[in-house]
Amino acid sequence: MTDTDAIPRIPTGINGFDQIALGGLPAGRSTLVAGTTGSGKTLFAIEFLARGVQNHGDPGVFVTFEEDPDAIRTNVASLGFPIAEWEATGKWTFVDASADIAMEAATIGAFDLGALTVRIAHAVRRIGARRVALDSLGAVFGNLNGFGSLRHELFRIVSALDLLGVTTVITSERPEEYNSVSRLGVEEFVLDNVIILRNVLRAERRRRTVEIIKFRGTSHRTGEWLFTISPREGIVIMPLAFLRPRERASTERVSSGNRDLDAMCGGGFFRDSIVLLTGPTGTGKTLTSLFFAAAAVRAGERCLLQTFDETREQLARNAASWGLDLDAMEGSGLLRIVSEYPEVASPEDHFLRIRRVIEEFGPSRVAIDTLSALERIVSSRALLDFVIALGAVLRHHEITTLLTSAPTGRVTPTVTPAIAMEVASLTDVTILLRYVETGGEIQRGIAVLQTRGSAHDHSIRRFEIDNTGMHIGDPMRGLSSVLGTVDPAAPGGLAQPSPQAGGERPGERDVRRPDGDADG
């Protein structure tokens, strides 16, 4: 271990942050947390103190310059932080400078930082505090003029805090998301550690990220990390808050709900498998999801069916056409259906809702139909973070999971690049559904591209859908120049035909319009 790695850390307890910080904030030092309005600065400071009390018994001092203590107690009640109780037991104390700031606001430079420092020091010693939070510097230093004066006064207060031996979080406002670090322009030069919270508006939606700019003398992860704010859990950084090592991999098999598909996959899915099923509209993705759920109910297992494309009523009607009674399955207590459109929430909030249902309902199986619907509201990177975080939760609970994805065109031979190509590397089983024209008629084909840890059928097989479900038949011969060879690096795992490969065969070709685009 190097000297830079030897600097002790104090865990924040904030969901996922300590993984970015490689253990927490450098102990005994002050850290600047800068952000624009709504980025979560105050919550970060509160959580730093509250998690310290909850998880480590560390007393904390909260210095507030803007909100009064009653407002803070009320605002964090949903997070389960009994601040009033902690105050009564000497685990938490406020230094309320908000009234002082209001009275001195009309007098430039009149606020007495020396007196404030004495008050903080007294509070720290009185309860034996190990953590301190100041929220926020702008209210104090906004009345000071001149770079030199600002820097000198900030150095005074930071030095006093460091001498007390406490680990401190100091919040400050930023004027823009991607410009200067802080509004005053001096904080980042005085403090050893700097963290930026962003609340960026992109494609008409807010996206929060956290980035560690510097930890002086020690290491940390770089780059921006997506986070959301949950009324129950506070700040949640995705996907790091949910990644954890697994002790074992399951060897137990479960049925997909289709015996022929089980056979193609080597006898079914492993209990902890994540399965990606991708195909255009009408190839049987929702049908497969419904039979997957029905197989769970028949086995006496609970299943969560999350749909982003259809209402609960539409899903029940579709299920009935295949002889499945969703009402009866739900009535048994073994099936729970959650139907909502992607636009009602951010992908992070969708994830938290799914995770909450998993924790409360305790399913053995989860089906999500379809992931690609989320592409309407989110970037491919954010959606990938969603899948990584979801996968971590599902694998931890050994939940057999079926994810479906639709391609951009109705009969295109490729899957959606933004989701399926990247998600496929995170899944255990990849199944491709597609259309092909043979002998003047449209037929459906199914291929299992991968099953990790298991043999599988390498054939591309015909299948039909009728009022009893999906029926998989014989291999489709002579399609190599149409569908291409199996290539995991190609979109959907299928390489495209080239003219040198012989082109199309008579009566056996992709369904294309004269302009070459997929027939929608």
Please explain how this structure is put together.
31% of the residues lie in helices and 25% in strands. With 520 residues, it is of the alpha/beta class. Helix 6 runs parallel beside helix 8, helix 14 packs parallel to helix 15 and helix 15 runs parallel beside helix 16.
Strand content: 25-35%
Radius of gyration from CA coordinates? 28 Å
Oligomer kind: single chain
On the 0-100 scale, what is the average pLDDT? 83
Brief sketch in words of this structure:
By secondary structure, this protein is an alpha/beta fold.
In terms of topology, how is this protein built?
Elements (H helix, E strand, L loop, with lengths): L8 E2 L6 H4 L4 E2 L3 E6 L5 H16 L3 E5 L4 H7 L7 H6 L3 E5 L1 H7 L8 H15 L3 E5 L1 H5 L5 H17 L3 E7 L13 H4 L2 E10 L2 E11 L9 E6 L3 E4 L15 E2 L4 H6 L4 E2 L3 E5 L6 H14 L4 E5 L4 H10 L4 H6 L3 E5 L7 H15 L3 E5 L10 H17 L3 E6 L11 H7 L5 E10 L2 E11 L8 E7 L2 E7 L4 H4 L24 E2 L11
Parallel strand pairs: 3-7, 3-8, 4-5, 4-6, 6-7, 14-18, 14-19, 15-16, 15-17, 17-18
Antiparallel strand pairs: 1-2, 8-9, 9-10, 10-11, 12-13, 19-20, 19-23, 20-21, 21-22
